[in-house]
Amino acid sequence: MRSLVNAALGALAFTIIAAGTAVAQGGGKIAYVNSQEIIAAAPGRAEAEAQIQKDMNSYREQVQKMGDSLNTLIASYTKSESTLSEAARTAKQKEIQDKEREYQQRVQGLEQKAQQRQAELIRPIMEKINTIIEKVRSEDGYAMVFDAGNQSGVVVAADSTLDITDKVIARLKASGGSASSTPAKTGPTSQPTGATRKNPPVER
Q1: What is the pLDDT of residues 4-63, one digit of tens each?
Q2: Backbone angles phi, psi at 27, to 5 degrees
Q3: How far apart are alpha carbons 157 and 167 in whole angstroms?
Q4: Which residue did the predictor score with more confidence, 26 or 93?
C-alpha cells in the first residue's frame, strides 16, 4: 500500500535542467528540497493513504466477485460441454464471451475510477506543498528550487546550506489542518513545475 501511495504522491519532482544557465545569466540563487521527506511530513497524507486503501479494497472486491462468477461459469461449461448439443454449446460460449467482455470493461472502469479518486485526494496535498515551496522561493529570492529526493538521480552532491526542506516542512505543519479534508473535484491535478504523475491501476 505504501508503494502505491508513494507512487501517486511522488509527483513532487523538481528539475535542475537549465539551472546552470539561470545562474550563469543572472547569478540567481538556487536551493533544493527532499521531496520524500516533505511528502512524509505533509498534513493530510495519512488520511489520504487510509482513504485510498479503503477505496482500493472496495475496487478489488468488486473485481474479485466478477472474476469468481466468470470462473464458475467457465468451470460449469467445461464440466458439461461433452453432454451439450451444438446449439447449447454455442449459446454457452456466447454467454461466456459476453461475461468476459463485461468483466474487462468493468475492470477498466474501476481502474479509471481509482485514478480519478487518487487525484481527488492527492491534489489538495500537492497544491499546498507547491504553494509553500513557491512562497519560500519568492521570499528568500531563489531563482530555482530543485528536488534532491528525485529518483532520477540528478543530484549527486549538494551544499547542505542550500537545503530548504526543513523550512518547507515547518511551514506545512504551521499551516495546520488536513490538506485532504476537503477533496477537490476530479480533474487535472496541480503539480510542481517539471513534475509528472503516474497513477497505478487497480490491483487484481
Answers
A1: 455 455 544 443 333 344 444 455 788 988 888 888 888 888 888 899 899 999 999 999
A2: 60, 25
A3: 20
A4: 93
Residue 33 burial (10 A CB sphere; 0-12, 13-18, 19+): buried
- Whole-model pTM? 0.60
Structural domains counted in the chain:
1
Which residues span the domain enclosing 140?
2-175
Note whether residue 188 is domain-resident: no
- Radius of gyration in angstroms for the set of CA atoms belonging to the chain, rounded to a whole number: 24
Q: Is residue 183 part of a domain?
A: no
Give the dihedral sign, CA 48/50/55/56: positive
Phi (first) and psi of residue 147, to 5 degrees: -105, 115
Judge whether 19 lies within some domain. Answer: yes
Q: What is the CATH number of the domain that holds 33?
A: 3.30.910.20
Whether 193 maps to a domain, the answer reads no
